[in-house]
Automatic annotation (TrEMBL):
One term of GO molecular function: oxidoreductase activity
Lineage: superkingdom: Bacteria
SUPFAM superfamilies for this protein: CO dehydrogenase molybdoprotein N-domain-like, Molybdenum cofactor-binding domain
PANTHER family linked: ALDEHYDE OXIDASE 1-RELATED, XANTHINE DEHYDROGENASE
Pfam families, alphabetized: Ald_Xan_dh_C (PF01315), MoCoBD_1 (PF02738), MoCoBD_2 (PF20256)
The protein, known as: Xanthine dehydrogenase family protein molybdopterin-binding subunit
Protein keywords: Molybdenum, Oxidoreductase
Residue ranges annotated for the Aldehyde oxidase/xanthine dehydrogenase a/b hammerhead domain, each copy included: 26-138
Taxonomic source organism: Bradyrhizobium rifense
């Protein structure tokens, strides 16, 4: 794997190392649970060992004898918190299963008691000594278990707006020259971020400070305030760094308000670090899905009909669904389309967002089916995509703001050596190894949300940027710093970036790959306010001001060279003219098409995401093409992936160095979702079996000897001022299908249910 910084191409920023690299490698970066508290109490959770039923009684006698125990909180003595609404139904929480409320148990691993003690060890020991007597009922676990109920997502879930349809699918499929009907399945997965689900709650009078890894500090602040029944201005959430999240820390989990209420009652700070296995049930997960895809085409590969039906597992309490048909029905030109998404309820914890939530499972189904169709047609899979490539999405007829899918395929194919592939399955071998090449389309909707920022420029050129963005490993500090440096014409080392604090101007959730597009567009706008002040101070001539305005645009001349000719704006002179030593500007930005209440919602920590397929008159996606080589041992069926390659076009690439890492991580995780990862369920008890990092399979370096990322130049002036499409999730999409397609090429065996393990090969 090459480690050199990538060469920036047109419409790419400087390839610089992480702003936070030194803090991270020297241990200076402070994560939520690292914050030293004064006289803290340590909390340890007791979680239910049944998935359905009720608590008959607790036996706390042994637990109370543990030295250092301060309190044990159960539903019998817990403060009754206010109801919380589901994040995807307009509220803040990841789950409306509210623990410690009653004796009823709605899921495995539900919090049933919180043990408080003077040390972590004492809390843990006492928690182990808590005895809970249950009456268990028989739970329903997943697809096929008796007792599940299935109903269309539309109508149950506010966020799920449509089952896209166009033309007459049934008629067109009936008369299609070539047809594919296939069923696919993806497993449950858990995010397993390195940083555990911790929270520390500190009261100072009637003000609460929460140190917790979160992808959305403004959402968490407002959600906790609502549950505690206090003013949101009394709550502050701080997390300068988040040790991974992948969607699991996007919405408020029930733990936070519980710990905050206990801290209030005890009058002492309380620190909770939930264990790895508890993280499987006190937060969300990627639910298992099932799909049926029908494709009809002409002999020369033109799609004439497409139907995608999806089923997703959710909890009894909450109608959560990712609904990826909004994407899969819009990928290719096709006149007759039908789709339906249903939610299947079981006795589980509520699932939630996990990296590219809709696209990972739904594009797996579509891109596998496209590959099946290509073999049926005896057509190269890339050519099949080319024949059906389109600049207009077929549902509403909106035009893509830009779409470089085939450029990605062509560049990727060239570097990968796709032309060496023999079309026939099982036709490439190397000694005892069957060799297979596979590819698939990758895509992710470009999404944006309102944000605010404050930028301060000092006379000596130092810049301070404040925005409540989130460093979840995504390189947020770096790109925000870069864009301010670029706009104000100062070196990056003069810029200080402040994020991860809900007292800063609000920014949206660091999710849906919207973070860079939203925060950088906002910072660009506020820097522009400063630039205009500087221009006015040094160029009283109106025509010059207009000229300066014209230079505003992504990747164009920075302010120091923005004036007429090559004249530099002298900060000293500008500050003298203005008679100040500091210029500080605050601004609020919202994307085109944001609803009227966008800024009000922003301040309340409610998402008003705009973009992707749901815009009025256009459609915005980033695209990529992913290529995989597999080698399968003829005798042992061992599956190896010697090469992964992705070629991507995602508008402006702010920092090629951090972008490459993001995309590389996505490719690796996508491969893992095909071959490694699955949360195993015990269907008798609706419980997770492999809830630890030893049994939950993850790829290691030896599993990914070569990962290559190609970033294509793409300029899109129609999406947002930053010109950014977002890459947080793009790399992760389509890889699972590319792996399966390569396995088919190597073996002639089509596997439609993930993850693929060697015992599935004949
Ligand atoms: Mo992501 S799953 O939108 O954090």
């Amino acid at each position: 794997m090459s480690t050199a910084a990538p060469e920036p191409k047109a419409n790419m920023g400087q390839p610089i190392p992480r702003y936070d690299a030194v803090a991270k490698v020297t241990g200076k970066a402070q994560y939520g649970a690292d914050v030293a508290l004064v006289n803290p109490v340590y909390a340890y959770l007791v979680t239910s060992s049944i998935a359905k039923g009720r608590i008959d009684s607790f036996d706390l006698a042994d637990a109370k004898t543990v030295r250092g125990v301060v309190d044990i909180v159960t539903h019998e003595n817990a403060e009754k918190l206010k109801e919380a609404k589901l994040f995807s139904n307009g509220g803040y929480t990841s789950s409306t299963i509210q623990p410690l409320k009653s004796a009823d148990i709605a899921q495995d691993g539900e919090i049933v008691a919180v043990v408080l003690a003077e040390t972590f060890e004492a809390a843990r020991q006492a928690a182990y000594a808590v005895k809970v007597n249950y009456t268990a009922a028989v739970p329903t676990t997943t697809f096929g278990s008796p007792g599940t109920t299935s109903a269309p997502a539309k109508g149950q879930l506010a966020q799920f707006k449509e089952d896209p349809k166009v033309g007459d699918f049934a008629k067109a499929f009936e008369s299609a020259e070539v047809k594919i009907t296939a069923e696919y399945g993806t497993p449950a997965q858990h995010h397993n971020p390195m940083e555990l689900f911790a929270t520390s709650c500190v009261w100072n009078g009637d003000s609460l400070t929460i140190y917790e890894p979160s992808q959305y500090v403004h959402g968490l602040k407002n959600g906790v305030a609502e549950q505690l029944g206090i003013d949101a201005d009394r709550v502050r959430v701080i997390n300068s760094y988040v040790g991974g999240a992948f969607g699991s820390k996007g919405s408020m989990t029930p733990r936070t308000a519980i710990i905050a209420s206990i801290a209030r009652r005890l009058g002492r700070p309380v620190k909770l670090v939930a264990t790895r296995d508890q993280g499987f049930t006190i937060a969300t997960f990627r639910a298992e899905t099932r799909h049926q895809v029908k494709l009809g085409a002409t002999r020369d590969g033109k799609l004439t009909s497409l139907r995608h039906e999806g089923w997703e597992i959710s909890s009894r309490a909450d109608p959560y669904a990712v609904g990826g048909t909004k994407t899969t029905t819009r990928m290719y030109e096709c006149p007759n389309i039908d789709s339906l998404v249903s939610i299947v309820r079981a006795d589980r914890n509520t699932p939630g967002f996990m990296r590219a939530p809709p696209e990972v499972p739904y594009m797996f189904a579509l891109e596998s089916a496209m590959d099946e169709l290509a073999y049926e047609l005896k057509m190269d899979p890339i050519e099949l995509r080319r024949v059906n490539d389109t600049m207009k999405e077929p549902i509403k007829g909106n035009t893509y703001t830009s779409r470089s899918l085939m450029a990605c395929f062509d560049e990727g194919a060239k570097v990968f050596g796709w032309s060496q592939r023999k079309a026939e399955p099982k036709s490439m071998t190397d000694g005892d190894w069957l060799v297979g090449y596979g590819c698939a389309t990758s895509c992710y909707p470009t999404q944006m949300a309102p944000a605010a920022a404050r930028v301060r420029l000092q006379r000596d050129g130092h810049v301070k940027v404040q925005i409540a963005g989130h460093e979840i490993g995504n390189g947020a500090y770096t790109v925000i710093g870069l864009v301010a440096a670029e706009r104000l014409g100062v070196p990056i080392d003069k810029v200080s970036v402040f994020i991860g604090d809900s007292d800063l101007p609000p920014a949206p959730v660091a999710g849906g790959s919207n973070s860079t597009a939203s925060t950088c567009s906002t910072v660009i706008m506020v820097c522009e306010q400063i630039r205009q002040k500087l221009f006015k101070a040094t160029m009283p001539d109106e025509t010059l001001i207009d000229k300066a305005k014209e230079t505003v645009g992504v990747g164009q001349t920075p302010v120091t060279r923005a004036a007429k000719g090559d004249r530099q704006i002298d900060y000293e002179r500008a500050f003298d003219a203005l008679g100040v030593s500091v210029i500080e500007e605050y601004g609020e930005w919202k994307p085109d098409g944001a609803p009227m209440d966008a800024f009000r919602a922003m301040n309340k920590g409610q998402m008003r995401m705009v973009g992707g397929p749901e815009m009025k008159d256009k459609i915005a996606y980033a695209f990529g093409a992913e290529f995989v080589e597999v080698r399968i041992n003829r005798w042992t069926h061992e599956i190896t992936v010697p090469r992964l390659l992705g070629a991507f076009a995602a508008g402006r690439i702010m920092n090629p160095t951090t972008a490459r890492s993001q995309l590389m991580g996505g490719l690796i995780w996508g491969m893992s979702s095909a071959l490694h990862e699955a949360t195993e369920l015990d269907e008798r008890y609706a419980r997770y079996v492999n809830d630890n990092l030893a049994d939950y399979l993850l790829p290691v370096n030896a599993d990914v000897p070569s990962v290559e990322v190609i970033m294509l130049t793409e300029q899109d002036d129609h999406i947002n001022p930053a010109g950014v499409k977002g890459i947080g999730e793009l790399g992760n999409v389509g890889t699972n299908a590319a792996v399966c397609n390569a396995i088919f090429h190597a073996t002639g065996q089509r596997l439609r249910k993930l993850p693929i393990r060697l015992e599935q090969l004949d």
